[in-house]
Amino acid sequence: MIGPFVFCPRCGARLTQQFLFGRERPVCPACGYIVFYDPKVAVGALVEHEGKVLLVRRRYDPGKGGWALPAGFVEIDEGPVAAAIRECREETGLLIRICGLLDVFAVPTDPRGPAVFIVYRGIPVGGDLRPGDDALEAGFFPPDGLPSPLVFASTRRALWRWRREKGFEGRRF
User: Fold this and answer.
1) Of 63, 154, 165, 168, which sits with the fewest C-beta atoms within 10 Å of its C-beta?
2) What is the pLDDT of residues 7-49, one digit of tens each?
């Protein structure tokens, strides 16, 4: 059985597998509840200032000690843009304005569960740069001076795209 459910979250009966909506899914034979395993929604901000990009050194796993975009999961009561602004503020002390969408990435192998990662472009509009929340360090880095290691394939892909836009065609990370 794929996923964490063995018993129905509604009535507690043991789930069975049925082919529904194009794939095998856990289904409750007692109440008919169908379990859909949906990915979490995560957001990040590629914040640029004076030709440099904002990165944070992670305090916790996954990726402890490595560098990534300021990012996190969308809360149930907020939209993705608000979440990206909140996460950046929590991790870096900076208030940002979202200027557009960079890309959307599928993240099927995160240890916290599959996710869809939305990366926005942003610029700082206030606050003071200081690490917070789950960041050990925060700083701006030029395209040819990114710190190492860069954790998460989605961070590396977003930075590769950003570097390419800046005229740095070099290797992927």
Assistant:
1) 165
2) 999 999 999 999 999 999 999 999 999 999 889 999 999 999 9
Measured CA angle at 162 (ends 157, 166), to 5 deg: 145
Query: What does pTM read for this prediction?
Result: 0.85
pLDDT digits (tens, 9 = 90+) for 92-117: 999 999 999 999 999 988 888 889 99
137 is catalytic: yes
Give the architecture-level CATH label for domain 40-165: Alpha-Beta Complex (3.90)
* Integer Cα distance of 106 and 71 in angstroms: 15
In the chain, where the domains are located: 1-37, 40-165
Q: What fold characterizes domain 1-37?
A: Ubiquitin Ligase Nedd4; Chain: W; (2.20.70)
